[in-house]
UniProtKB/TrEMBL annotation, chains A, C:
Its EC number is 1.2.4.4. This is 3-methyl-2-oxobutanoate dehydrogenase (2-methylpropanoyl-transferring). InterPro entries: THDP-binding, Transketo_C/PFOR_II, Transketolase-like_Pyr-bd, Transketolase_C. The lineage of its organism: Bacteria, Bacillati, Actinomycetota, Actinomycetes, Kitasatosporales. Keywords: Oxidoreductase. Its cofactor is thiamine diphosphate. Pfam families: Transket_pyr, Transketolase_C. Residues 9-184 form the Transketolase-like pyrimidine-binding domain.
UniProtKB/TrEMBL annotation, chains B, D:
Its cofactor is thiamine diphosphate. The keyword Lipoprotein does not apply. This is Pyruvate dehydrogenase (Acetyl-transferring) E1 component subunit alpha. Residues 1-25 are annotated as: Disordered. Keywords: Oxidoreductase, Pyruvate, Thiamine pyrophosphate. It comes from Streptomyces macrolidinus. The gene is pdhA. Residues 64-341 form the Dehydrogenase E1 component domain. PANTHER family: 2-OXOISOVALERATE DEHYDROGENASE SUBUNIT ALPHA, MITOCHONDRIAL.
Length: 334, 381, 334, 381
C-alpha cells in the first residue's frame, strides 16, 4: 500500500467518483434519471458521465419518476444494475408504489429467483434554503418498507464507499444523500477509495463516556459539533453515525449505550413517526437496565418542512441537542 | 393588394425549428376492429396455426372452468377467470419466441400457462400459497402483476435492457381496459416510444373494470387511439377472433424486433364470468349483454372457420376436448393435494442475506413452532 | 333519551350507516372511488348509496388512485367534503404523492386559507386470506406525514362515530378500516349513533393493574382475548385502544402505563419502523421512572406480508402477546 | 360465387354493441400551430384586447427581468423566469372571468400576477418566505404548484365540483412539456374527459424540461395529439402569438363553460432564460437556437401588428414601458424590505387546531427564542 497525500474533496465529488468507478468496473451498471445527461443533474453529481460512458449508460429519461423506477425494475430483471437518480426527496413520491409494491418485494415474491439490484439515489434533507418540496426527510417511509436497504453517508469517504457497496449489493438500496453535505469537504484519497462492505455497520465517529448521540447523515456534523461544545459542560459525548438505517447495527449502538448509560437520538426528520422512535425503542429494549434516563429524541418538529427563512428554527442544532443532553437526569449520577 | 400582401416583413411563420415529430395518420387505428376469421384473409392464415390456436382455446376454456370450480371447493383463494378472453390469452402466448418475455396481469394465468408455465405453479398465488409459483426466468414470464399497470414499465425496462445488450428480445405486456387509466400506463407507453423499446402493449378491453363499464373509464374514441399521443401505432382488433389477434400481435412483435419500436393493441373482448368468483356481476350488468357476447365466442368463431374449411373434423374436436379434460383432471388432482409451506421461508428471501433482526425473528418463530409441536404442555400454557 | 334495544350489527354496516348519515346530513359530502357505485364497493360498504343519493354524490371513478385523490383535493378546494375510498391498502400507494405533497400540506401551505376536509378510507391489514397486496398495514407511512389525522376503529360503535367525526373534521383524515373486523359484530344502537369527537382520544377497553397492552384497530380484539387468557397466569392486563394514531393521546396512554408500570405495544404492521417504535419511545420518555421493564413490542415480522397460508405465523396472536407480557421482568416485582 | 358469399351464417361482425365513442377526427389538432398575428384573422381581433395584451406583455417581460435581478441580489431564493413565454402567461390570465380559477405551475408567477395577485405576494414562495403568499380564494388562483402536473387533477376536481354545485366556473390549468410525462397529467385529462369537466389544460411547450429537450420527452407528433387518447379536442397554437393563444384559450373556455367539456391546448413557445437563475443553459443548448427564438419574440410579434395597424404609437409604447417601470420599481422597493416571519406560525396551520404535541413543541421553541433573546447568559450556557 503506497502512501498518497490526502487531498480535500467534497462529498459531491466522491459520489460522482463512485458512480464513475462503478460504471467503469461493471458494464451492467446504468445511470438514469431526469437531467443526468448533458446537465450532469441539478447537483452536477453525474457531471461528465454521459460524455464518458455514452447516453446508453447515463440516460436522460422522460420526466416521470414512477416510469424511471418502473423501467429500472425491468432493466434489473434483465440483469442490469440501474442506479436511479431522484431529483429531490419529495419528487420520489410518485415512484412510491413501485418502491413498495415491486422494488422491495420482487426477490421475496419470486422466492429469490428475481433479485432487483437497484440503487435509488435520493438527495434529501434541508438546510439548503430550498423552497417547499425540496427539503424533505423521507427516510421513515423507506425504513418501514421491508426488503429495502436504507443507507446514508455523513462523510466524504463513506459517500464513496457506501455508494459503491450499494451499487454492488444484490438488494435494492435507497441511498439518501444529505444535500447540505454535498459541498462539505474532507481530506480524502481518491486514488485508493474503498467500498464500505457489508452495508449495515454503524461507526463511532467520536468516542465518549458520558452519553451517546445516535445520529446519521446531515445531523452527524451537528452532533460532532455539539459533542465539542459539550466538553465545556463537562460532558464527554460519544457520537454514533448509523450510516445504514436498514439493516440496523444493533451491536454497535447497544454497545455504546450500555457503556455510556444515556442516549439522545438526533435527526432532521419529523419526530413523530420518524426514525427516532424506532431507534429509541430498540435501544431501550436492549439497554433498559443500563439506562440512567430515557432515551431522548431531538428531531425536526412535527410539521411540514418550513420555508427557508424559518428552517433554522426547525433543524436540530447544537443548542437543542445540548438541552436534551442536559435533560438526561444527571442528578441520578450522584 | 390585400392586407396580407402588404406585409413583406412578417409573414406568419411557424415558431423556429418547429415541426411535428411524426405523421399522425399512420398511428391511428382502423375504424373497426380488425377481423380475420370469416374474411378472405382467413384463407391466407397458416392452417397449422389455426389448429394450434384452437386446441389452446379449448384447453384454456377448460382451464378457466376448472380453476373456477376449485374456488368453490376452497382449493383456490380467488380466481379471476378469462373465460371469453381466451383468444387474447392464447395469442399473446403463442406469438412470442422462446427468448421473448411475457408480462401478464393478475387475470392472465392462462397466457402464462399457454406459454409453458405449469398450470399448478401458475395458480400458486391464487391458491394462497407463495406469491409466485414459478421461476420467471424458466419461461420468461414475469410474475402475475396485481397492482394494475405497474408491470408495464417493467416490460419497457426489460425490453430496453435487452436492446442495450444487443439481444433480439421482445416484451409483450398485458393490461386491462381499467388499467389504462393508471399513471403507470401513460409513463410506460411514453418511455417505450421515446426509447423505441421493443415492446408490445396488449390491452384486453373486456368492457369492465370490476363493475365499472368502459364509458366511465374513458371518453376516447377507442383505447387504441391513445397510441397517437405517444407517437406509436395503435391497432384495434376483435379480441375474440384468435387469428386476428395473433396476426396483429405478430405484426407488432415483428416491428418491435426489427427496431420499429412499440405498438399499442386494443383487443375488444368481453369478460363472460364475473370479475372473480367473489364478485356478483348481476349488480352491474344484464344477462342479455352477456348472451350477445356468448354468440361471439372465440372458440365458436374459430371452430366455424375450421369446420367450414374442413380443417377440423369431429375427431379432432374430440381429441382437443379430451386433451383439455386430461389437463383438467391432472390440475384437479394436483390442486387437491395440500401444498406444504415452510414458515421459515418467510425470512429467506427478504434480502440476499437475512439481517440480524430477521435471524432473531426467525429464531422466535422457530421456538414458537417447536413449542407448538411439543403440544399444549410444551407451549408452557 | 329513549331506551332502544341494542341490536347486533357488523362494523361494515356501521360504516355504511355513517356514510349514509353524512351524505344525508351535509350536501357537501361526496363519496368517490373505484366501484363505489352500482357494486357498492368490493366490500359492499357503499352499498345503496348511489341509488339513494345519486351518482353525483357517490361516484364510480376511472381506475386511478392519484386521480381520485387529486380530484378530491380540487373538490375540497371548492368547498366539498370528499370521502374517498381506496380499494385496498396497497392500492393507495399510487396516490402517495398527492397524500404527502398536497393533502397533508395544503392548509399549512396557504396559512390556513385552504383547508382540505378530505376523508381517505383505506381498508387495511391482514387476516382475511388476501393474496399479495391485499393485506398491508400502511399506517406508518401516514403517521410520519404531519398534517394528516390517522384514525382506526376497533368496535362497531367507534367505526360509526369516528367516521362521522372524520368526515366532519376540517382536516384531512386517513381512516383505516380493519378489513378483518368488517364482519365482526357488536350490540349497537343504530337509531342513536354518535360521532366520536374530538378525534384523538384513546379509550381503555379493559381496565387492569398488571400491565398495559397498547394497541389499535385489528389487534384490539386479539389483545382483549390475550387479557382474558392472562388471567390464568395471574396477570390483570389493561387494554388501551388508541383509536387515533394522529393526534396521539399521550394523556390516556401515559396515565395507564404509570399505573401499571409495564407495557406492550401490539400491532400487525411490521415492527421495524412501524408505529410501535414511536409509541414505545414516547411512553418511555414519559413514564421512564414508572417502568419496571422496557416497553416491549409485538408486531408483524419485518417481512413483506406473507401469503395467506402463512399469515397466521406473521400476525400477532394471543400466545405471542402473552410471551411478551411474560418477558416484562416480573421478578423485579418481588 | 366467392368464398365469402358462401358464408351466410357468419359474416364477420364487429363485437356486440361495439362502437367508437367519439369521432376522432375533430379531436386532432391542426397540422401547424394556429396563428393570428400577421394573418387576416388579426383584423377581426378586438383592438382593445390586443392593446391590453400588449401592455401586459411589456409589464410581464419587465417583471421577469426584475425578478431575475432580485435573485442576483439575494432577495429571491430562486426564480424560474417566463421570459419569452409571456404571451401564454398573460393570455391564460386574461381569458378567464373573475369567477374562474387558475391553476399555475411553479413557473407561472406571471400568470398569477396578470390575474391580479400582488406581485410581491406572488413571489413569497420563491423569496423563501411562507409557501404561499396570497390567499388562493382572493383571486381564485391556486398555489403555485411545485410537484409537476399534480395541480392538474386539482383543477379537474374543482371544475367538477363547481359544475355539481351548478356554478358557471371554468378552471384553467397550466403545465410544462416535461410535466406531460407524469402520470398525473394522464389521470387528470382522463378524469376531465370522462366527467366532461369544464377545464382547459394549457401545456406550455417551451422546448425543455430543465435540460431535457422535447425529443427525449415524447415521440408524439405534437403534445396536442395526446388529446385524442382522452376523447377531448387538442389544439396547437403558436405560443408566442398572444392573440392566437388568447383566441384558442377563449374558445376552449367557452366550450367548457357551455358544457362541452375539456380541451387540451399545446402552446409552442420557448424558454429564453435558463431554467432558473441556478441553471446553466449553455450545458444543453446553443445560443443560435435561442437567437432564432428571439426573432420570434411575443412582444415583437404583437408590437409589429399593432404598429402596422396603427393601433399603437410611440406614446403608447412609452406609456406601457413606463407603467412596467413603475411596477418594477415598486416591486424592487418592496422586495428590498426584509419580510418579518413569526417562527410561531410554524405550528399554526398544520391542523385546524394544533395538537397537544404541537403545543408542546411550540412552547419549546418559544422558550428557546426567549433564551436567545435574553442573550448568551440567559441561554443558560
Ligand atoms: C393499482 C390498483 N388499484 C386497484 C386494484 C383493484 N382491482 C383489481 S382488478 C380491478 C379492475 C381491473 O380492471 P381491468 O384493468 O379492466 O382488468 P380486468 O379485471 O377487466 O381484466 C381493480 C380495480 C388493483 N389491483 N391495483
Ligand atoms: C414531480 C416532480 N419531479 C421533478 C421535479 C423537478 N423539476 C422542477 S422543474 C422541472 C422541469 C419541468 O419541465 P417542464 O414541465 O417542461 O416545465 P418548464 O420548466 O419548462 O416550465 C423538473 C424536473 C418537480 N418539480 N416535480
Ligand atoms: Mg377490464
Ligand atoms: Mg418545458
Amino acid at each position: 500500500m503506497t502512501t498518497v497525500a490526502l487531498k480535500p474533496a467534497t462529498m459531491a465529488q466522491a459520489i460522482t467518483r463512485a458512480l464513475r468507478d462503478a460504471l467503469a468496473a461493471d458494464p451492467s451498471v446504468h445511470v438514469l434519471g431526469e437531467d443526468v445527461g448533458a446537465l450532469g443533474g441539478v447537483f452536477r453529481i453525474t457531471d461528465g458521465l454521459a460524455a464518458e460512458f455514452g447516453e446508453d449508460r447515463c440516460t436522460d429519461t422522460p420526466l416521470a419518476e414512477a416510469g424511471i423506477l418502473g423501467t429500472a425494475v425491468g432493466m434489473a430483471m434483465y440483469g442490469l444494475r440501474p442506479v436511479v437518480e431522484m431529483q429531490f426527496d419529495a419528487f420520489a413520491y410518485p415512484a412510491f408504489e413501485q418502491v413498495v409494491s415491486h422494488v422491495s418485494r420482487m426477490r421475496n415474491r419470486t422466492r429469490g429467483a428475481m433479485p432487483l439490484p437497484i440503487t435509488i439515489r435520493v438527495p434529501y434533507g434541508g438546510g439548503i434554503g430550498g423552497v417547499e418540496h425540496h427539503s424533505d426527510s423521507s427516510e421513515a417511509y423507506y425504513m418501514a418498507t421491508p426488503g429495502l436497504h436504507v443507507v446514508t453517508p455523513a462523510t466524504v469517504a463513506d459517500a464513496y464507499g457506501l455508494l459503491r457497496a450499494a451499487i454492488a449489493s444484490d438488494d435494492p438500496v435507497v441511498f439518501l444523500e444529505p444535500k447540505r453535505l454535498y459541498w462539505s469537504k474532507d481530506a480524502w484519497n481518491p486514488e485508493e477509495p474503498e467500498a464500505v462492505a457489508p452495508l449495515g455497520r454503524a461507526v463511532v465517529r467520536r468516542p465518549g463516556r458520558s452519553a451517546t448521540l445516535i445520529t446519521y447523515g446531515p445531523s452527524v456534523p451537528v452532533c460532532l459539533e455539539a459533542a465539542e461544545a459539550a466538553r465545556a459542560e463537562g460532558w464527554d459525548l460519544e457520537v454514533v453515525d448509523l450510516r445504514s438505517l436498514v439493516p440496523f447495527d444493533d451491536e454497535t449502538v447497544t454497545a455504546s449505550v450500555r457503556r455510556t448509560g444515556r442516549a439522545v437520538v438526533v435527526h432532521e426528520s419529523t419526530g413523530f413517526g420518524g426514525p427516532g422512535g424506532e431507534i429509541a425503542a430498540r435501544v431501550t429494549e436492549r439497554c433498559f437496565h443500563y439506562l440512567e434516563a430515557p432515551v431522548l429524541r431531538v428531531a425536526g418538529f412535527d410539521i411540514p418542512y418550513p420555508p427557508p427563512m424559518l428552517e433554522r428554527h426547525h433543524l436540530p442544532g447544537v443548542d437543542r441537542i445540548l438541552d436534551a443532553v442536559g435533560r438526561l437526569q444527571w442528578e441520578a449520577e450522584n | 393588394m390585400t392586407v396580407m400582401e402588404q406585409r413583406g416583413a412578417y409573414r406568419p411563420t411557424p415558431p423556429p425549428a418547429w415541426q411535428p415529430r411524426t405523421d399522425p395518420a399512420p398511428l391511428l387505428p382502423d375504424a373497426l376492429p380488425h377481423r380475420v376469421l370469416g374474411t378472405e384473409a382467413a384463407a391466407k392464415t397458416d392452417p397449422e396455426l389455426l389448429r394450434r390456436l384452437y386446441s389452446h382455446l379449448v384447453r384454456g376454456r377448460r382451464y378457466n372452468a376448472q380453476a373456477t370450480a376449485l374456488t368453490k371447493q376452497g382449493r383456490l383463494a380467488v380466481y379471476p377467470s378469462s373465460t371469453g378472453q381466451e383468444a387474447c390469452e392464447v395469442a399473446a402466448a403463442l406469438v412470442l419466441e422462446e427468448r421473448d418475455w411475457l408480462f401478464p396481469s393478475y387475470r392472465d394465468t392462462l397466457a402464462a400457462v399457454a406459454r409453458g408455465v405449469d398450470p399448478v405453479e401458475a395458480l400458486t398465488l391464487l391458491r394462497g400459497d407463495w406469491h409466485t409459483g414459478y421461476d420467471p426466468y424458466a419461461h420468461r414470464v414475469a410474475p402475475l402483476s396485481t397492482p394494475l399497470a405497474t408491470q408495464l414499465p417493467h416490460a419497457v425496462g426489460l425490453a430496453h435492457a435487452a436492446r442495450l445488450k444487443g439481444d433480439d428480445v421482445v416484451a409483450l405486456a398485458m393490461v386491462g381496459d381499467g388499467g389504462t387509466s393508471e399513471g403507470d400506463f401513460h409513463e410506460a407507453l411514453n418511455f417505450a416510444a421515446v426509447w423505441q423499446a421493443p415492446v408490445v402493449f396488449l390491452v384486453q378491453n373486456n368492457g369492465f373494470a370490476i363493475s365499472v363499464p368502459l364509458a366511465k373509464q374513458t371518453a376516447a374514441p377507442t383505447l387504441a387511439h391513445k397510441a397517437v399521443g405517444y407517437g406509436m401505432p395503435g391497432r384495434l382488433v376483435d379480441g375474440n377472433d384468435a387469428a386476428a389477434v395473433h396476426e396483429v400481435l405478430a405484426e407488432a412483435v415483428r416491428r418491435a424486433r426489427e427496431g420499429g419500436g412499440p405498438t399499442l393493441v386494443e383487443a375488444v373482448t368481453y369478460r363472460i364470468d364475473a370479475h372473480t368468483n367473489a364478485d356478483d356481476a348481476t349488480r352491474y350488468r344484464g344477462e342479455d349483454e352477456v348472451a350477445a357476447w356468448r354468440d361471439h365466442d372465440p372458440i365458436l368463431l374459430l371452430e366455424r372457420e375450421l369446420t367450414e374449411r374442413e380443417l377440423l373434423d369431429e375427431d379432432a374436436i374430440q381429441a382437443a376436448r379430451e386433451d383439455a379434460e386430461t389437463m383438467a383432471a391432472d390440475l384437479r388432482a394436483r390442486m387437491n393435494q395440500d401444498p406444504v409451506l415452510d414458515p421459515m421461508e418467510l425470512f429467506a428471501h427478504v434480502y440476499a442475506q437475512p439481517t440480524t433482526q430477521l435471524l432473531e425473528q426467525r429464531a422466535q418463530l422457530q421456538a414458537e413452532l417447536d413449542a407448538e409441536a411439543a403440544g399444549p404442555e410444551g407451549a408452557g400454557r
